[in-house]
Amino acid sequence: MKKDKLYFTDFAAVGDNVEFEMNKDSSGVITKVQKRVNYVSRKAPKIKGASFRGERLEQVVAVNIDNVVVVTSIYFPDFNNRVLDRFLVASESSSINPIIVINKTDLDNNSISEKWNDLYEKIGYKVYLTSVYTNTGIRELQKSISNKKNLFWGHSGVGKSSILNKMFPGLNLKIGEVSDYNSKGKHTTVTANMIKVKGNTFVIDTPGLREIDPYGIQKQDLGHYFIEFDNYMNDCKFNTCTHHHEPGCAIIDAVEKKFISVERYDSYLRMLDTIEEDINF
Ligand SMILES: Nc1nc2c(ncn2[C@@H]2O[C@H](COP(=O)(O)OP(=O)(O)O)[C@@H](O)[C@H]2O)c(=O)[nH]1
Ligand SMILES: [Mg+2]
Ligand SMILES: [Zn+2]
């Protein structure tokens, strides 16, 4: 449906199968990148203070993976469903199975996690409520990622590295590494690695992310990546409907009837608003 035109900003990325030639000094060169089964990407981050306001390129985050484990937290940072939805859209647009983790449930005195758990499970997503401190949900999550290649993705500070260390103590990932920028606002070159943790189980811990803008999504396609919209979209009067204001919109109707949650619809509208016209490719 999308991404038929592929312009990679990265020649090879985490998860690529490559061929390479060794030099005599034991350095090497990649001579070939094999065809990718799939890949997850985002728009390359805006550089703070940069004056160039051009098109933002695509940044490939990981390649050839089975699950995108989208990690969020209750506090520090506060749970934000719109951020979660952006990660989900990025995963859906790559047709890669997302798994939602809501971490730091030990801090959840107001049952925030249960409300969101119910909302996303109703849509059809698998949600794990976890706490690294009380060990809640960790084993269940571990089971669901076993024998798969898993990208751990989410904003800085939500606990991605902590969860991975808890599941696989030998990993010794650094905790509290924040931001994909250094203090001067420059993009740092912290790279992610695919690590074999057990038999056929692989994980990729991504360095802190400050923002997530899905790449290559056109306004009229966004609705496809809000998976529960799919049941209604064919009934919109116009096939170019962006479900924003158009007459005869079946999505707006479904929101009014509470078949689609107002939280998800609101999130959709905000994302729609940030998609620039026609400059994605
Ligand atoms: N209260 C609480 N804090 C956590 C939990 N998991 C991680 N943290 C803390 O959150 C901070 C960021 O964790 P880190 O694993 O580095 O997050 P990452 O940036 O997503 O990799 C650290 O101070 C952790 O100790 C949890 O389940 N509960
Ligand atoms: Mg980390
Ligand atoms: Zn519509």
Write the layout of secondary structure elements.
Elements: E1 18-22, E2 28-33, E3 39-43, E4 58-63, E5 67-73, H1 81-93, E6 97-103, H2 112-123, E7 126-129, H3 138-144, E8 149-153, H4 160-167, E9 194-198, E10 201-205, H5 230-233, H6 250-256, H7 262-274
Parallel strand pairs: 5-6, 5-8, 6-7, 8-10
Antiparallel strand pairs: 1-2, 3-4, 9-10
Helix pairs in contact: 1-7
The structure holds guanosine-5'-diphosphate, magnesium ion and zinc ion.
- How many strands appear in the DSSP assignment? 10
Which series of helices and strands comes N to C? Answer: EEEEEHEHEHEHEEHHH
Bound molecules: guanosine-5'-diphosphate, magnesium ion, zinc ion
Q: State the CATH architecture of the largest domain.
A: 3-Layer(aba) Sandwich
Structural class of the secondary elements? Answer: alpha/beta
Strand order of the largest sheet: 7-6-5-8-10-9
Q: What is the mean predicted local confidence, pLDDT?
A: 87
Supply Rg. 20 Å
CA-based shape:
globular
Task: Tell me the name of the CATH homologous superfamily of the largest domain.
Answer: P-loop containing nucleotide triphosphate hydrolases
SS field, number of helical segments: 7
Low-pLDDT stretches are 1-8, 182-189
Fraction of residues in H or I helices: 10-25%
CATH class of the largest domain: Alpha Beta
The main pleated sheet reads as: 6 strands, mixed
As for the CATH topology of the largest domain, it is Rossmann fold
| Strand percent estimate | 15-25%
Distance between the termini: 15 Å
Q: What count of structural domains? A: 2
